[in-house]
Amino acid sequence: MTELKTIGVVGAGLMGHGIAQVSAQAGYEVVLVDADGAALEKGLGVVRGQVEKAVAKEKLGAADGEAILARLTGATDVAALAGCDMVIEAIVENLEAKNGLWRTLDEAVQPSCIFATNTSSLAVIDQAAVTSRPDRFIGLHFFNPVQVMRLVEVVRTIAASDEAVRAGIAYGERIGKTAVETRDRAGFLVNRILVPFMLDAIRGFEEGIGSIEAIDAGFRLGAGHPMGPLTLNDFVGLETLSRAAEGMYEEYRDARFATPPLLRKMIAAGWYGKKTGLGFYDWSGPEPVPNPKIDLLRTV
Ligand code: 3HC
Q1: Which amino acids bring their CB within 6 angstroms of ligand 1?
Q2: Which of 118, 191, 233, 291 is flagged as catalytic?
Q3: Measuring CA to CA, how many Å separate 173 from each of 23, 38, 67, 152, 168?
Q4: Is 4 helix (H, G, I), strand (E, B) or coil?
Q5: CA-CA distance, 152 to 299, in Å (whole number)?
Q6: CA Rg, the chain, in Å?
Q7: Tens digits of pLDDT across the chain (300 residues)
Q8: Is 120 an annotated catalytic residue?
Q9: Of residues 23, 120, 121, 242, which has the active-site annotation?
Q10: Of these four, 32, 169, 258, 297, which has the most CB atoms within 10 Å of its CB?
Q11: Mutational test site, ligand 1, from 148, 197, 240, max ligand atoms within 8 Å of CB
Q12: What is this structure's pTM?
C-alpha cells in the first residue's frame, strides 16, 4: 500500500480545521483550503491557538509545536491540492455543493489521490460517481470535536477498492483514532442511531416531558452521557443537525429522521446553537442558561 504523505482538507470550519490539526499532529504535510479567506484564517488561527495552548501546558514540546504548525499551510485555491495523496472534504452538507467541489478537484488533483468525504448523512457513492475515480473514493466521518473524539468511520462504497479502504483505515489509526469500517448507508453507524436520539430529545421537549435542563440532566445523570442531548444539539449546530436529518430522511423516508417543527422554527429564527449564541441555551454569558425565548416557539 502506498504511504500517504500529504493530506488536503477542504473547508476550514468546525470539522475541517480539526481534521487539518490532527493530521498535522500525526506528521502529515497538510494543505487546508477554504475559498473564503476569512474562514481560512479563522480555522488556521484556532489550530495555532490550540497548539500554543498545548505547548504552554507542557503537553507538547515547543519544537514539536512549531513543527506541527510548519507542516500546515493554508490556501484559498484548490490548485494548492494538486500533489496531495488524499483530500478530505468538510464543506457544507449539501450533495450539489459537494459534487461541484469533487468535479473541480477531479481535474485539479493528481489521479492517484484518494478522495474522502466527511459527510455525516449522505450516501458516499453519490459523490464518488461524479468523479473519474470511484474506486479511490471513500467516506471518512469524524466526530466533533475532532481533536478529542476518538472514532473515525471509514465508509466502503460498492465501488471502493480494498486499497482505498485500507488507506483510510491506516490514516485513521495514524491520527490516533479507532477506525471502524462501515457500510455506505446514510448515517453510517453512529448517526443512524444518534440523530434520531437527538431529534427525539427535541420532540420530547415539544411534548412537554420536561424542561431543557431536566432533559439534559436526565441523560447526564441517568445515562452517563458527557452532555445532555439538547446541549449536544447546540454544540453540533442546529442547522447541521437538521441537514443531517434531512439527508437521512431523503434516503429512508422514515419519520424518525424528520426535522421536528420546533427545530425548523429555531433555524428560521437564526438560532443555530452555540455558534450563533442562541439555541436551546443562551450561550452569551459565562455559563449557558436555557434560552428564555424558547417557550414562545413550543408547539404545546
Ligand atoms: N477542540 C479541541 N479540544 C477540545 C475541544 C475542542 N473543541 N473541546 C474540549 N477540548 C479538550 C479540552 O481542551 C480538554 O483538554 P485537556 O484535558 O487537555 O485540557 C478536554 O478536551 C476536555 O475538555 P473540557 O474539560 O473542557 O470538557 P469536557 O470534559 O466536558 O469534554 C467534550 C468536552 C469532549 C466536548 C465532552 O463534553 C463530550 O464528549 N461531549 C459529547 C460530544 C459528542 O457527542 N460528539 C459527537 C457529536 S455528533 C457528531 O459529531 C457527528 C456529526 O456528524 C453530527
Answers
A1: 50, 120, 143-145, 147-149, 191, 194, 226-227, 232, 236, 244
A2: 191
A3: 11, 32, 21, 9, 9
A4: coil
A5: 37
A6: 20
A7: 678 999 999 999 989 999 999 999 999 999 999 999 999 999 999 999 999 999 999 999 999 999 999 999 999 999 999 999 999 999 999 999 999 999 999 999 999 999 999 999 999 999 999 999 999 999 999 999 999 999 999 999 999 999 999 999 999 999 999 999 999 999 999 999 999 999 999 999 999 899 999 999 999 999 999 999 999 999 999 999 999 999 999 999 999 999 999 999 999 999 999 999 999 999 999 999 999 888 655 554
A8: yes
A9: 120
A10: 32
A11: 148
A12: 0.93
**Which grid coordinates belong to 104?**
473541480
Q: Contact, 31 vs 107, CB < 8 A?
A: no
Pair 168, 138: CB distance under 8 Å: yes
The owner of cell 476518538 is 150
Which domains, ranges and CATH numbers included, belong to the chain?
A: 6-183 (3.40.50.720), 192-296 (1.10.1040.10)
Cβ neighbors of 241 (< 8 A, separation 6 or more) are: 195, 198, 199, 233, 263
Which one is catalytic: 153, 233, 242, 291?
A: 153
Rounded to an integer, what is the distance from CA 229 to the centroid of its chain?
A: 17
CB 179 within 8 A of CB 172: yes
